[in-house]
Amino acid sequence: MDLTLTPQEIAFRDELRSWLATSIPPGWQAEYLRGSMQDRFASLRRWQKTVFDAGWAGIAWPREHGGRGATLMEQAIFTEEMARAGAPPLANTLGLSLIGPTIIEFGTDAQKRRFLRNILSADEIWCQGFSEPNAGSDLANVRTRADRSDDHFLVNGQKVWISYGWAADWCALMTRSDPASQKHSGLTYLLVDMKSSGVEVRPLRQMTGESEFTEVFFHDVKVPAGNVLGREGNGWRVGLGTLAHERATLGVLFQVQMRRELDRVITIWRDMADRGESPVDPALARQKLAQAYIENEVVRLTHLRALSRLMRQGSPGPEGSILKIAWSEANQRLQASVQELLGQYGQLAEGSDAAPDHGHFAYAYLRARANTIEAGTSEIQRNIVGQHVLGLPKSY
Amino acid sequence: MNFELSDTQQAIKDAARDFFSKELRSADVRRLIETETAFDADLWRKCADLGYTGMIFPEEYGGVGLGFVEMAATLEEMGRALLPGPFVSTVLLAGSTLSRAGAQVKQAYLAPICRGGARATVAVLERSASWRRDAIAMDAAETRNGYELTGEKLFVSDAAVADVIIVAARSGGARDLVLLVVPSDASGMRITSAPGVDLTRRLYRVSFDRVHVPGEQLVARGADAESALDHALDVTALGLSAEMVGGMQHLLDHTVAYTKTRSQFGRPIGSFQAVQHRCVDMLALVEGSRSATYYAAWALGERNPDAGIAVSVAKAYASDAFREVGNMAIQAQGGMGFTWENDTHLYFRRARGSELACGDATFHRDRIGRALLRP
Hints:
Chain A has about 400 residues and is α+β, with helices and mostly antiparallel strands. Chain A has helices at about 5-25, 30-35, 35-55, 70-85, 95-105, 110-120, 235-275, 280-315, 320, 325-340, 360-370, 380-390; strands at about 125-130, 145-150, 150-165, 170-175, 185-195, 200-205, 215-225, 230. The radius of gyration of chain A is 22 Å and the shape is globular. Chain B folds into three domains: about 5-120, Acyl-CoA dehydrogenase/oxidase, N-terminal domain (Butyryl-Coa Dehydrogenase, subunit A, domain 1, Orthogonal Bundle); about 120-220, Butyryl-CoA Dehydrogenase, subunit A, domain 2 (Beta Barrel), CATH 2.40.110.10; about 225-375, Up-down Bundle (Butyryl-CoA Dehydrogenase, subunit A, domain 3), CATH 1.20.140.10. With about 375 residues, chain B is of the alpha+beta class. Chains A and B meet through α8 and α12 of A and α7, β10, α8, α9 and α11 of B.
């Protein structure tokens, strides 16, 4: 066991640090918070282009596809350093962390040439079309049809909870290509141009008031047969790859974000206490802040253990499987503690001049509620871990 | 960066598991908890022969000179087997305190511990039952050639099998902290049993009526004593965390095996999500505790500036986790889990004892909170 960074990891970190020191647009956050959702996204897209031009986008991807062939540990360092420097997030989240890696694993050479570079540069934004009104946790119940005729598929159906559907140029779409099939067989993973005729995107307003999510309707949408990722009928296997990437990579990002929020609330609470305006007793504040810190450390360290195992074995161990449950539930507890520590002020939303950090914490409290649902509910995660890690009998 | 045990560290852990699975079966634990002190002299000798009693101490005092990661790996296996008796009191708490003494005191008291010839403990708590250093108030009056102890220490672990008790007291006008080695047969010292929930580790009240301690039995005084005690409490809290990880792992393995075979409504109860999800929560608590514990072990070995906080993270998390894992293990086994014959309650009891030793979760969160709020 040796938790010091290797000389190679230190060199990587230092190079990144010095680039970040001169490249982050000064004052981007204030401008960002003022803009509309579309304006914000456009600025993140510009930032990703800057990152791409400097060679820092998709660093874990193989060199031949525009990456740096970075190790998983370097990828974790990258995420941590970006957060530490207060850099904006990258716009094409789903393309970078889920869909790009799936294309690298399953795509043809032509698909790799066509799509990967534009994912890195954010020239093409991607969304993921998996969930449907009747295929949520039971994802294999997908009904969106893809009927083969000659050199193309005709797609009909409805997808829901599509993040960035309003911004996306392309969609990674799970379809049923064999109408007689059931469950996991007969599914096909299609790469669909969102500008195709018959694609209709409707905003889906969520409890935060925003419309990050969309519903996407497909009416006789023609998708070329060359846009099947993997083999026709093998969509479940390809999609599982995507989900594994999703669960493995989102954790470190959330942990670092949570740590930054904790640091920020420590500063705000201390200022309130110094002014004699703290709504909670210092002894209680210490308990709540410490518990949030402990839970964050446990997620951070468990993630490092999972990465070490993944680098050696190529597959995650039991410690990795619990991370999605751990960070999502920890974030809900963190946001609840933040609300208690800020007292009346915690509830103040954007637009109130007394709101700490322009109402960020009121928003974060509401937004955290989705964490135990998105990317697989906590219940589904527990089923997976119970059956695949602990070897318990299937419940359904 | 590599967060996995090295081959050597893994071999040490495997050897410990192998040893305790042969030498300390459930029946042995049950035999020991029926004795007065839960101490097994034969097993102690075997542990000493394997180097466990001198594991983390230098070779010049008969130790093996291993690091804290190796210690944590060994303690995890001791915790899994529920090793009864004074190992933690002697080796971790007293040994680490003595390791900060001068060469003479180390030769006199640490070397016998390393070689397996002596057992010891440290008396810290008083009526306030607080692990904060400033709660130590017992008087050690200065005499012509040493100190004279008067007062009472509570919750002293394994005092009845200790050859020496290291006493934390206050002395002089500045009320300096002093750590004094007192032989268990010292005149004026009385040891009274204070039976607790944990049957594997016994607690005692130790009272002192003008107990004379010669000056050469001083371990440390003032700032040196404070740093020695802080160090010993950190090492012990780390060891307890590692033990708790092993105890939790046992409960998880046992519970999962039970729910796979116990059948109700015509199916194994492990196929019901209400049971499955509880088992997954147990796994999450075990793995989280393990992550925090091994990081703390590494940080302490590297003398990282945040090592003390890392120990507090591990101790706070594992203390809460072990109690909760015990709760869930009993619940999953239903009535069987509540019987005397089932070993689960022995771990459930241990969880309570280990949680309280060297500061519970609230104590360690307070320490972390103070560090976070430091300007």
